[in-house]
Every structure is written in structure tokens, then in C-alpha cells.
Protein: FBX21 protein
Amino acid sequence: MPHINAAAALQICVLLSALPAQYFISQWYGTDSAQRIQITERLIIASWSSFTKSHLSLDAWTDRLKLWLSKTRTCLNVGLFVLHFRNWYHGEKKTKMGDNEAETHSYFAESTHVHSPKPEYIRFSVGQVIVHKRFGYSGVIVGWDVKAKAPEEWLHHNYPPAKQDLKDTPHYRILINKANGFGQSTAYIPEEEITIIMGLEVVHHPDMKAYFSGYDGSKYIMQPWLKKIYPHD
Structure:
């Protein structure tokens, strides 16, 4: 069986396409043989010219390549935009969550930022044993704020209009002595409600060892991590 290359196959296709072309031309333009041949030749030449310009021209393929690259670049840009937006959105969301969490842990003298320098008006120190002036329970100081730092709902509940000034005074976080049977394990109270007790070593609370390593006769000795937060106490 003879081998037909691409060029031969293309020529055969062109010749075969001429037959139906001649039939339609005869229907449209009459039956004059010479006229049909001329029209057929012009049609074949025009078709071949159009085909070569569309499929065999380097400029045509260059234009196709440019169009494809343009579409690809557009899709890529859209994809990158979506990726950057998604990363920005999730990053922003995580940042906000982190900020809210940090804000929550900064309430009630639980902030881990270094309290330095210590203002002179902060009269008491972490590790000192106290007694509440009104309620009479004892406990130990584990943190302080220069003024009340708590959620607004808590501040409104604990400081009615007549006591608004107390919000701007030093506040202390207390581990309450379980031996008092007070019913609460911690308290957050203003400085004016505290009295210091010297020489009282025993404060019973399940978190004492987490905050303190011992007692020096005047106050409890802070663990290293707590000392870093309150270096001047």
C-alpha cells in the first residue's frame, strides 16, 4: 500500500472538495462549463489563501500564541489575587483573634507584660499577704494593675456612679486563703480595701506552688517566671 505524506493528503482533500463545490456552483450560477471552472478555480484559490493565512502563516500562529498567553496571564493574575485575598483574610482573622485573646488575658492583673518601672503610688507588692478590710478574708497578691483593667460589664457592675473614682486606682489580683471558707478562689480588688499582714506564712490555695517557691518571713518568694513580670516587687 503506497505511503501518503501530509502534503499529498492535503492536495487530495482540496481536489475532493472541488467536486461538491462545482455542483453547488452549477446550481447557483447556471450550467456554463467555462464559467463554472473559473468560479471553481477562484473559490479554490480563495479557500487555499484563507487556509494558509489562518493555519500556515507564522503571523497567525504568533497571534494565537499571544492570545493564549494573554488569557493564561489573566487567569494567573485572578488566581494570585484570590490567593492573596484569602491569605489576607485568614491572616487578618487570626490577627483579630490573637488581639482579642491577648486583650482577654490582660484583664484582672493577668497580663504577662513586664511591669517596669513600678510607679511609686503602687504601695503593695506581689507575694505580700493581705486581709480584706470589709470581708475579712486573707490571701496573697499575685499581680497588680495601675488601674482597674476588666471588661466593661464587670466595671459597671462593681463600680456604680458613686464609686467611679475607684476604677482609676491600683488594683490587685489575690489568691484567697481557702482556710477562710470564703467561697471564691481569687479576687480583684482596689488598693484601699487591702491591709498587709506581716509574718503570716500559711495561705492555702491549690495554685500557690505555681506562683511561689517559698516564704522569706515577710512575703512569699516569686517563681522565676513571675519575677520577670514584676522585677521591682
Q: What stands out?
A: The first helix runs from residue 6 to 29. The first strand starts at residue 129 and ends at 132. The CA atoms of residues 105 and 111 lie 6 Å apart.
